[in-house]
Amino acid sequence: MRNILAIIERELRAYFTSPIAYVVLTIFVFLSGLFFRSILAQVLQMGLMSQLQAQQLGPRAMDMPGMITRGFLSTMSVILLFVMPMLTMGLFSEEKKRGTIELLLTAPLTDLQVVLGKFFAGVTFFIILLLTTWIPTGMLYLYSTPASGPILTAYLGLLLYGLALTAIGLFISTLTENQIIAAVLSFGTIMVLWLVDVLANNAESSTSKAVLTYLSILSHLDDFMKGVLSTSHIIFYMSLMLVALFLTYRSIDSLRWRG
Amino acid sequence: MITVENLTKRYATKTAIESVSFQVEKGEILGFLGPNGAGKTTTMRIVVGFMPASDGTVRVDGFDVFENPLDVRRRIGYLPENPPLYPEMTVAGYLRFVAKIKGVPKEKIGAEVKRVMERVSITDVQERIIAKLSKGYKQRVGLAQALIGDPPVMILDEPTIGLDPKQIHEVRELIKGLAGNHTVVLSTHILPEVEQTCNRVVIIDRGKIVAIDTPQNLRFQLQGAERVFMEIQGPVPEITSKLKAMPGVIDVHTVGSNDGRHRFQIEGELKKDIRSDLARTVVQSGWGLYELQSASMSLEDIFLKLTTAEERE
Ligand SMILES: Nc1ncnc2c1ncn2[C@@H]1O[C@H](COP(=O)(O)OP(=O)(O)OP(=O)(O)O)[C@@H](O)[C@H]1O
Ligand SMILES: [Mg+2]
Is B128 an interface residue toward A (CB < 8 Å)? Predict the structure, then answer.
């Protein structure tokens, strides 16, 4: 356990001594501010419209804070698709390039400890990113009373989704010594996992349609955003993460064989 | 302390080492001498448990490197060919990290880092960023990393490469200072290096062991003693006793085996060519003779390669 913590700590220090952490954080916070503002404006406009309609058709209930958080956090999930490869690209590829992988793999550590240390380092940084979205979300609590249930499930969904993305990026960074290649490959993989449901629209049979829709990495977030907790979505993200971690572990093993 | 038996490593495209066998006694400094591409790094990487062998076994302090990798790694300090450094870290920060992953108890980390830094004289650069250090300092930080935790076995892959003559001298003195309490294996392609630091030398070329001896005896060899290598299929004890009984033969022992074929190292009296006698004896006894090689010749070739390599430094 101490070994794993040592790896996490070193990796986090490395994030914050390189420009990557600051670039990623800045981009992320800037984009989240931008999108929050535009979503806020949109929802306010809709609110105005429905007020006008209410004069003619009678009042209707409208959950404005809920609409705002839902819109905002869904947008964040798309931005994360682009940002996560930047966080995970160097996790193993840099170790390979610098030869420090030889230090980790000859220290009295199991391969599993090495993989978990790297994984949780990426996850920790992801959680830091996720926490920055509390600034706009928290502001809603100052000016309104949003229903907390859907916000909590939305964050749980985003966390699971982040775990899966981190594991995928981690696996891909074991495949190359070049972190740019790792980032591009991770991005491509995530894109495919995102867009499979577009293919689903053209699918012939209903089963292949169902399978393709199921594989889509973003579609499983919808229920979380609506405040619905369903085990099938939790299982989807958890299995994606476990498969990627297992592949990472195997990839380290084969790296040992190849030298 | 270290027993290597019939180690073979086949990469996808080539066989890097083939039935390499040797032993290192406790407290000894063993030199691993060979030209570029001989298989030194490959052998060391297997011994430290970085990569698995295709065949053969390695035991360190009684533990099999494949079956008990962590027990073996806890006992080894390893300096890879390229020092495994994180350029963005400070020297002291890096060494603290190494101490943590090697499981040095928390309260002892500070003292241990201080100890190794003093040992390799890098205390004055402890707060510097590793990326900004000179090559010699980087090499010493790599050495300090291997010393963390004071492991009983040190495996050093070309520890003096990239250093200036003064630093080379310092590192060799340091390694000599480790002897006794530590078992050291170091690789080099520089002949004087093993003569100055090692108790015994393993000479390896193109993946095969060519000779195992003291540096003095190797010098002697070069001056004309006869050594013959033979690969024979048959019962080892009988072959050994029969060859030993031949006139002109001083000593016989095996240096490895492969598929039932055994590699024998035969010491002959000076200036006596016993090769044809040996061949006749083996064949007449009904054993299979696969290879017969006069070692003093090939040793010379290898030394020639080694010397030219040093001149290029
Ligand atoms: N990962 C690898 N994949 C394929 N072949 C390899 C690999 N590593 C080494 N080799 C080959 O195996 C042989 C032995 O290499 P090794 O690095 O063990 O030699 P060495 O004695 O350490 O040489 P040097 O003095 O140059 O460091 C070489 O021919 C090398 O090209
Ligand atoms: Mg080498």
Answer: no
Residue ranges of chain B assigned to CATH 3.40.50.300: 2-220
Question: Is the full-model pTM beyond 0.80?
Answer: yes
Low-confidence ranges of chain A (pLDDT < 70): 59-62
Other C-beta atoms within 10 Å of A125: how many? 24
Question: What are the residues whose beta carbons fall under 8 Å from the beta carbon of A185, sequence distance 6 or more?
Answer: A172, A175, A176
Complete DSSP assignment for B85-142: --TTSBHHHHHHHHHHHTT--GGGHHHHHHHHHHHTT-GGGTTSBGGGS-HHHHHHHH
> Rounded to 5 degrees, what angle do the CA atoms B302, B9, B207 make?
10
CATH class for the region spanning B224-295: alpha beta
pLDDT of residue B273: 77
Contact between A3 and B103 using a beta-carbon 8 Å cutoff: yes
CATH class of the domain at B2-220? alpha beta
Tell me the residues of chain B between 96 and 125 that have a Cβ less than 8 Å away from chain A. 97-98, 100-103, 106
Amino acid residing at A35? F
- Tokens representing B190 are 């520089």
Q: Which of A100-109, B27-36, B140-149 bottoms out in mean pLDDT, i.e. has the lowest?
A: B27-36
A228 alpha carbon – ligand 1 mean position (Å): 57
> What are the φ and ψ backbone dihedral angles of B24, each rounded to 5 degrees?
-125, 125
